[in-house]
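Hey, resending since the last one bounced:
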Amino acid sequence: MKKSLKHIFRIIFGRSMIYILMLLLQIAYLFVVFEKLGLYSGYIYALFSVLSSILLVYIINRKGSPEFKLVWVIPVLILPIFGALIYMWSRLQPGTNIIRRRHIDICDRTAKLIAQNKGVMDELEEQDPLTATLAKYMSNYGGYPIYKNTKVTYFPLGEDKLAELLIQLEKAEKFIFMEYFIVEDGEMWQAVLDVLKRKAAEGVEVRVMYDGMCSVVLLPYGYPKELAKYGIKSKMFAPIRPVLSTSQNNRDHRKIVSIDGKVAFTGGINLADEYINRKLLYGHWKDTAVMLEGDAAESFTMMFLQMWNVDERTEDDYSKYLVPSVPVDGADGYVMPYGDSPLDGENVGEMVYLDIINTAKRYVHIMTPYLILDGEMLTALTHAAMRGVDVKLILPHIPDKKYAYLLARSHYKELIQAGVKIFEYEPGFVHAKVFVSDDDRAVVGSINLDYRSLYLHFECAAFMFRCSEIARIERDFLNTLKKCIAIDMDNVRKYPAGKKALGSLLRLIAPLM
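The structure tokens again:
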């Protein structure tokens, strides 16, 4: 009974509902303020009608996704005063602008510490000029280089990652940095925390950062103080506060572990029991991760420090956490870790995905929990299938968010008609974020195929090229496929008309979801 109540509580007060509630409360507050100030009189209405016309021209011509523009065009057209004011309020956010300037400044200043190795780039250009162009883009616009001398280990389930994570944490000698979207008290977190306490007591520097949304239902608000008792430095990123701010929409969705600058983990797996199937919320939880040993680990060290120092008065000496390159047994291929920020105007997460899709020759295989596509991604997927590329998508059969499933289903018809093959994971929920293509390119990280991951959240991932472990990622995809239901046009036709209509309507506000 307690478990069911807790599950209901999590649905009602889950992250998506909190986002929506916060948005509605802020809109309602502004509406009342406008009413009190008498901003609906004739002259003011006429003035704001002119202002709305100017804003519409600005919105349409500014850089950005057409879908996001549409979300603003509709309220500005229908409610000139309210729509115009709320748009200006969203653009003139001092808190968001401070974070933006601070994060961009830190990333710019630390980029030279992890500058692209020219020898590695020259070698990549000789082997594959096309992949080299992606690496140059990421180095120039994302600030993250591509590396050799890195061994990759792939984990097809959360249980597998946890077992290796505990082993690697025990080996830590200098520092452990952990950054997660979700940390929830339970078997998984306690197993990790036991090691962290012990390592901190041994003199290892331990830092843990998690997203502030956790304090709503998963952890006490003062939990960082609790961890400090064990010598663990901890903080929430963007704590939830009852203030009018759009910055609370930009969450830290990353999953990063960096150990001594030599070993790093990333993927879709958070620190909560459903991720290791100790707690069944939506059937079997399918998730993935990778471990990097060697030179590429330094990018994840830097990603963590860049985020940690955004709100610090005294910055770290970043260079002391970067270690000399040491040859790694089993290293092969190229690895490019990268982070994505919603504040720098460059959607590198989506660009990497689009590059993989647009350059695929034989196949693109994708696992993602959500399929809420913008026009560019939809066109890339359909065009790849229409030019003969085998495009397969694995999605959840038991969704964690009903609205997300309805939105995903709204894309099925167009995708299937173009030749994209869609499968749903029958045992439960797929939370993995995996791209694999042509046996030589793959991405594993935290980036979903939805607007939040691609535009609104801080994210991270690892791009791999010609690493032997890519074969294991593809095998895992094919093994997962055996547990899936194929969705065909007959299935699409039989889907209830009411749900189809609701999914179509939700696409109007999809960028907010």
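Residues 149 and 331 are 5 Å apart (CA to CA).

Sorry for the duplicate.
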